[in-house]
Amino acid sequence: MFSTVARCFLRISLSSRGDAGITVRKAGYKSRYSYDTLYPKSDFNVTDTRELSKEYYPPKEPSQELPETETQEEFNGYIPEGSLEFKYTLSGGPGGQHVNKVNSKVQAKFHIDSADWIPAWIRPRLKEMEKSNITKDGYLLVSSDKTRKQYLNKADCLERIRKMIWTAGVPDPPPPSEAEIMKKLIKQMKANEVRIAEKRSQSLKKRNKASASVRFIQKKGF
Amino acid sequence: MANMWSGVEKAIRMIKKMPRVQITNVKDNTSKGRKSKMRRGQHGGDKCGRGNKGQGQRNNRPRLGFEGGNSPFYLRIPKEPYYKGHFLKKEYPPFSLLQLQRAIDLYRIDDSQPIDLAVLCNTKLYQMDVDLRHYGVHLTEEGFDLFQAQINIEVQWASEAAIAAVESRGGVITTRFYDPESLRALVNPVTFFKRGVPIPRCKLPPMELLDYYSDPKNRGYLSDPDLIKKERFELSQKYGYSLPEVPYNEMLLLRKDPRQVFYGLQPGWVVNLRDRVILKPKDPEIKQYYEDRLEAKSV
């Protein structure tokens, strides 16, 4: 049933450091659940990052470019590397030795007007919205000392910047069409009619409650 | 469906399929069974180990757990909902990034080779017990700031920050399931090889874990590599680091097949450490079982 082989199929060699360096043949073992069978079209090289940022931040072709302020394109959340300046400082509050010694507070800073990664129509709105966090030079400052860890505070800063841009970047509603205007008018008129009818009925009720002499006076118009 | 056949009928059905009894497939029953020495001789006889009178001698003891009338222990202790099913739950003993970095710095782990559960257990810095329902290693994020190594690591559970830490240094992390039999082989490979048993083929995860290992967010071994690439990028955007440009490195991309337990070794092989020889199965049925390939069906 089993066959013995004189030499190992697999070279288990001992390197000078004393650990086993395994050299593997490219063909290898492949069952029915191997990656080629499950995902034949996918690229196995997960470390290849060349195409990714282009997908999220495609380079703009100048010939096709419309004046940016006219189109209301959405912000996709991509923040390119190097666009934010980070400063790491000491956090405040309780925490003993850790808070006294470790730079866990993170401050992110960027110049709004020169930020190409934010759509142009959002930038003035963002400036208006975050007036209190913008310096004279036009830099938006966002700082976070929410957690004990610097990397989590950094993530928090980025999250908040994205949220700000998205809230500022709510697109204007489209102008109402003629049919919609008509519909609204008709609704208003109907509501008005109902209101007046109600008012008249209420008035009649009050009049009927009044004494005969008052009714007489009201009728004769004294 | 209730059992349609009685024990005798089942036995007959079994015998019909088995090979004929021949001189070659009959052997003595060497384990003769423990012969009871009770009721025989000076030491096994007389009262036969039961003492004098009372319940003990007269076969009249109360049920197990009875404490003479007071509320017994097994009824006194209330049930707590957070303990429900505790004996069935899977555990993943943690191993932090800090411990990993320390091990690499002290040359106890070689970062130029892929790291998996076998590597961690061999260092003796990490222990786990399959009998205690430990299903593998959980990589935790303690030591995020100090972690520097570029590694190819395979764990059973990983927190998001741990994944971010490994990938931000240009490494690759995969989460991977092993069933208990494969785990026993991995946790102590030398002991396993000494048993002379073929390397098992690893089972797929159970239903409750299938979602976890098919999710690219967890870098599951059953998920689409293209989606993993996308998730790597999104995680880098979330934590604010840039994915380093890594030249094509075969070591980083080396991954086991979902049925494979050891790097470089196939299921079905028997590793003989003493003679430094590997035995491979020749029988086609056994080979088919271990290779588990999708054969093209001939019409």
Topology, element by element:
The complex is a heterodimer of chains A (222) and B (299).
Chain A lengths: L1 E3 L7 E3 L5 E3 L12 H4 L13 H5 L28 E5 L6 H6 L3 E7 L10 H8 L9 E6 L5 H19 L9 H32 L2 H9 L2
Antiparallel strand pairs in A: 2-3, 4-5, 5-6
Helix pairs in contact in A: 4-5
Chain B lengths: L6 H11 L23 H4 L9 H5 L14 H4 L17 E3 H9 L11 H6 L15 E3 L11 E4 L1 E2 L1 H9 L3 E4 L4 H8 L1 H6 L12 H7 L11 H15 L10 H4 L16 E3 L4 E5 L2 H8 L8
Parallel strand pairs in B: 1-2, 2-4, 3-5
Antiparallel strand pairs in B: 6-7
Task: Explain this structure.
The complex is a heterodimer of chains A (222) and B (299). Chain A has helices at residues 35-38, 52-56, 96-101, 122-129, 150-168, 178-209, 212-220, and strands spanning 2-4, 12-14, 20-22, 85-89, 105-111, 139-144. By secondary structure, chain A is α+β, with helices and mostly antiparallel strands. Among the domains of chain A are: 2-56, no CATH class; 85-168, Double Stranded RNA Binding Domain (2-Layer Sandwich), CATH 3.30.160. A three-stranded antiparallel sheet of chain A has the order 4-5-6, covered by helices on one side. A two-stranded antiparallel ribbon of chain A has the order 2-3. In chain A, strand 2 (12-14) and strand 3 form a beta hairpin. Chain A is elongated. Chain B has a domain at 87-264: Ribosomal Protein L15, Chain: K, domain 2, CATH 3.100.10. Chain B has a three-stranded parallel sheet with strand order 1-2-4. Chain B is extended and about 85 Å long. At the A-B interface, strand 1, helix 1, helix 2 and helix 5 of A face helix 11 and strand 7 of B.
Salient structural properties:
heterodimer; A: 222 residues; alpha+beta; Double Stranded RNA Binding Domain; 3-stranded antiparallel sheet; two-stranded antiparallel ribbon; 12% strand; elongated; disordered N terminus; B: 299 residues; alpha/beta; Ribosomal Protein L15, Chain: K, domain 2; 3-stranded parallel sheet; two-stranded parallel sheet; 13 helices; 32% helix; 8% strand; Large ribosomal subunit protein uL15m (chain B); structural constituent of ribosome (chain B); ribonucleoprotein (chain B)
